[in-house]
Amino acid sequence: MNAAGQQFAFFDLHPPVDDMTAEVQRGLQESPKKLSPKFFYDERGSRLFEAITRLEAYYPTRTELGLFDAHLQQIAALIGQDSCVVEYGSGSSLKIRKLLQALAPSAYVPIDISKDFLLSNAQTLAKDFPSLHVFPVCADFSQAIALPPQTNGMHRVGFFPGSSIGNFEPEQARTFLTRVAGTLGRGGHLLIGVDCKKETKTLELAYNDPDGVTAQFNLNALAHLNRVLDADFNLRAFAHEAHYNEDLGCIQMFLRSLVEQRVDICDEHFHFAAGECLHTENSYKYAPAEFAQLAGSAGFDCQQQWLDEKAYFGLYLLRAR
Ligand SMILES: C[S@@+](CC[C@H](N)C(=O)[O-])C[C@H]1O[C@@H](n2cnc3c(N)ncnc32)[C@H](O)[C@@H]1O
Fold first, then answer.
1. Is residue 2 part of a domain?
2. Does 253 score more than 80 pLDDT?
3. In this structure, is residue 100 part of a structural domain?
4. How far is the CA of 244 from the centre of ligand 1 (A)?
5. Could you say which of 2, 7, 37, 121 would form a disulfide bridge with 133 (CB–CB 3.0 to 4.6 Å)?
């Protein structure tokens, strides 16, 4: 505890490396082969994602920040005081700082899978907000998470910006939101940013930036597995691709094998044909009415929604029933 009475405690619920090996091997045995997008995020992946958010082509972050600047005072008034903000996939972002300033909550629980990045960002944030209790939790948010006992009895406010909800398949998104509603408890709020459907050209440019930062981010998933799982992916033998699938309403990212090759992960071998794609991410886009319907089916009422003038991005304040 510091002079201002601040508490800081770190909770590590990180899944063991063995589980990660089995999960990666299972994904590579599927047809088509796939990897979970959570493997993008080691420390370098988190930094590359930050670089993406600053790209001209990548409209979601600046549009969401614009919505924050325009509406945070109103959001704070709707939520009220003495809350505990629980951020799912906290990374490092300007958005949480803006929310904490506007809301002045009692506690903040950043949840992230990238342990070192989580801890260092939580420590920096605790220094910058000396009267805020900070309880970082290293966990996979697609699993059930017990929140730190220090937050029991507080009004919980979930925060899930950046359209990360779009990384789940729609049915998984419903499961995730249902679990979040349960964690936040009846009357708890969820402030969530969701990318809208729009013309293909704008969407595809955002995921195929001319500087190749998104390509580096996509390939970094392989570098991450090489480092953590003793895999031997040759990064020069894969190429980044991203397309908008209009039927599904989602951007799909792939790593295309440029040659026929074998990859070893621990004691398993995986064969890639020349031209074969490894699917690394889906990013679903939701029209506002579609998202309100999804949230409703997961136990939330939509209290208020805000869109930018081009209707590129939506910010929704939900309330658990
Ligand atoms: C796209 S960043 C978002 C950062 C910040 N919330 C924002 O909107 O700017 C996603 C963050 O979620 C984390 N993440 C991704 N998948 C996760 C998972 N399954 N469980 C926990 N954290 C996850 C990553 O480590 C990363 O920091």
1. no
2. yes
3. yes
4. 22
5. 7
Task: State how many domains the chain has.
Answer: 2
Does residue 188 share a domain with residue 115? yes
Atom of ligand 1 nearest to the CA of 142: 19
Give yes or no: residues 76 and 102 share one domain. Answer: yes
For residue 126, what is the domain's CATH number? 3.40.50.150
Find the domain containing 224 and state its range: 17-52+200-284
Place of tokens 């805000």: 306
**pTM of the predicted structure, to 2 decimals:** 0.91
Report the nearest atom of ligand 1 relative to the CA of 64.
Answer: 8
Strand partners, 293: none
Expressed in angstroms and rounded, the spacing between residue 112 Cα and the centre of ligand 1 is: 6
Instruction: Kindly state whether residue 191 falls inside one of the protein's structural domains.
Output: yes
Model pLDDT for residues 181-199, shown as the tens digit of each residue: 999 999 999 999 999 999 9
Instruction: Say whether both 145 and 250 belong to one domain.
Output: no
Same domain as 316, residue 272: no
Ligand 1 neighbours (beta carbon < 6 A):
38, 41, 46, 49, 89-91, 93, 95, 111-114, 140-142, 161-162, 164
**Residues 126 and 27 grouped into a single domain:** no
Contacts of 201 (CB under 8 A, 6+ apart): none
If you take atom 8 of ligand 1, which residue's CA is the nearest one? Answer: 162
User: Which residue's CA is minimally distant from atom 13 of ligand 1?
Assistant: 89
φ, ψ dihedrals at 255, nearest 5°: -120, 115
Q: How confident is the model at residue 175 (pLDDT cuts 50, 70, 90)?
A: very high
Q: Side chain identity at 177, as an amino acid letter?
A: L
What ligand 1 atom has the least distance to the C-alpha of 140? Answer: 20
pLDDT score recorded for residue 15 = 55
Tell me the CA–centroid distance for residue 3 and ligand 1, in Å.
Answer: 31
